[in-house]
User: Fold these one by one.
Assistant:
Number 1:
Amino acid sequence: MSYRLGDIVRMKKPHPCGSSTWEILRVGADFRIKCTGCGRVVMLTRAQFMKDVRGIADSGAGGDVHAESGNRGPA
C-alpha cells in the first residue's frame, strides 16, 4: 500500500490523548506523523510505521510523495 503526504492513517494502538488517527507529514526512509487529537509529532522508521499502521482513514489532498510540507525559508 502506498502512503502520501496529508493522508490520515489509523494506527494499531491509540495515542495517550485517545486519538488513533495520525496525519502523514513526511514519507521516505522514515515517516513523520502528527496526532490528529493533540498535535504531537512523532518520527518512525518505515519498518515500524508499516508494522503499526492499520489503514488509511482519509486520503490527503494529493500531496507529492517525496515532498515535505512546511516553510523551507527564502527562495
Number 2:
Amino acid sequence: MTELKAKIRLDKWLWHARFVKTRSLAAKLCDGGIRIDGKLVAKAGATVRPGQVLTFALGRHVRVIELVAIGERRGPAEEARTLYRDLAPPTIETALPMDIPF
C-alpha cells in the first residue's frame, strides 16, 4: 500500500476486514450507526484511517476495533485480521441478550 492513501471509506474497510460479507451489508451496518473515536456516524462514506477506534453492534456483541491498516483488497481472513486490533473481543459473558418472541 502506498503512503498517499492514508484513509478509506468506512463501508469498504469493514468489508476488507471481513466484518461483513458484502459492501451493501457494510453500508447497512453504517446506516445503523457506528462510532468513530466516540462520535456517532451514520454514513457509509465516512472516512477512516489507522489509529481510529470503531465501536459498533454486530450480531449479539458490541465490537470495539482499532484500525491498524487500511488494506488494499478483501483478502483471506488471516490477512484481514492484520487490519485491526480487537480491543474488546466477544465472549459469551459479554453477549447481548437474545430477543425471545412470545
Number 3:
Amino acid sequence: MTADPPQASDPSRPPAVVPPPREERSGGGHGLPVGPPPAAAAPGPLPPHGGGHTPPPVLPPAVDPVEEESEEQPEPPAARPTWFGEPATPPAESSGPAAKPHRADHREWHGIVLVTGTDTEVGKTVATAAMAAAAQAAGLRVAVIKPGQTGIATGAPTDAEVVTRLAGPETVRTLAEYPEPLAPLAAAKVAGLPALALFDVVDAVRAEAEKHDLVLVEGAGGLLVPMGLRPSGEAWTFADLATTLGSGVIVVTRAGLGTLNHTALTLEALDRRGVPAKVILGAWPADPELVHWANLGELVPHLVGALPSGAGSMDPGVFRRSAPGWLTPALHGVLDNWRVWAEEAG
C-alpha cells in the first residue's frame, strides 16, 4: 500500500482575503471554530469582473456537514433525534426489490432542524422559507414552527405569514403570540400572558416530526434570548431547546462588518453544548465590498447557503424556483462550488 501523495497548496489563493488552512489551529482567523477542511480550489485566478468592485477571492468548493466523516464511524442509536441525513423512521424491510429512497444522500439534513441568528433582523425568516422551499422541491414533507411570535401589535406580517407566502410549506404553526416586539419571555411578562413552557414546545415539535420529513423551528433574535420558563421558573433559551431536542442548528448571519465575532460567539456557544451547527448568510449584497469578500472567505468552511439581498421581496414563484440555488446539497439545494458562486455573485 502506498501513501496518498500530499496535496499541493493552491498558489492562486490571495492570503489577505482567504488565508490558507493551517494544521495546528484551534479556531478560524477570528475565533471561528475550524470546520471540515475545504477542497482545493480550481487553479487560476478569477477573471476580472469590472464595475469597479473588489474582485471576489478564490474560494473552495462547498463542503457538506458530514461529507468528510469517516465511513468507519458507528451508526448513532436509533432513539436519538435525527439531524444529519438520518431518516425520521427506519426503512421497512421488504423481500422484493426496494425502491431507492429519496433521502439516500447522507449529507442532507432531515428531522428537526433549528434556525437561529447572530442577532435580530439578520434574515432568519427568509432563510427558513428558502430551506423549506428547497426541501419541498426535493420531495420532502416540510413543517415550519415558530415557538414565540412577538410584535403582533405592530401590524407587520408575522414570520409564519412570510414563510407561508414565500415557500408554502405543508404545515406552518405559531405556538404563542405576544403584542410587543420584545424577547418572547419579556413580551409575555409585559402583556400578562403565559410564558412559553419548554416541554410544551418540545412536544409540539416532536409531534410534527412524526408527520414530516423536515421540521424547521425558527427562534427569536439570537441563540441565548430568553424564550420562556421551565417548570422550575427558570428561563430557557433557544440553545436549551436545541440540547433538549438533540437537534442541529442553522445559524443565519450578516455578511458585513462585525459578523465574524457574532458568528464565532454563536458557534462556540453551540459547540460547547455539543450541538452541530452550520451557517447561512442571510443577505448577500448586490454590490459586495472588500469586507464582504473577506468575511465570506473566513466563513466558507461553515457555510451551507447564502441568500441574495432582497430575496424576501421576490415573487413567491421566483423565490421557490431560486431557493435551491442558494443552498448546498446539505440543505437540499444545488450550490456545490463557492468559487463558481463567487464569480456569478461578482
Number 4:
Amino acid sequence: MESNLLIGGISLTVNEAVAKRICRLLCEKDMSQYRLEQKSGIQHGSMQCIMNGRNKTVTLSTVIMLARGFDMSLTEFLDDEVFVSEDLEVER
C-alpha cells in the first residue's frame, strides 16, 4: 500500500508530492535538476526515479538531502501545501 494524500480532489502519493515540491523549488530558485543533484548528493538515476514517478517511496534521508541541496531546513522543505492534507494514508 502506497502513502497517498488528496490535493484538490486528486490523490497523490508521497513520492508525487515530493516531485511536485522539487519542481516548484527548482523554478523558484532558478536551479537545474543537475545542480540539485550535485548539491544534494543524490545520484541522477535516483532523482530521475523520483521525478518520473518510478520511485514508490521516498525516504526521510532522501528528503533531508533534497532540503540541504536547496539550502533549506527539512521544515522549510515540507512547509508546502502539497504536504498539508488530512487524507494522508500512512502504511502500517
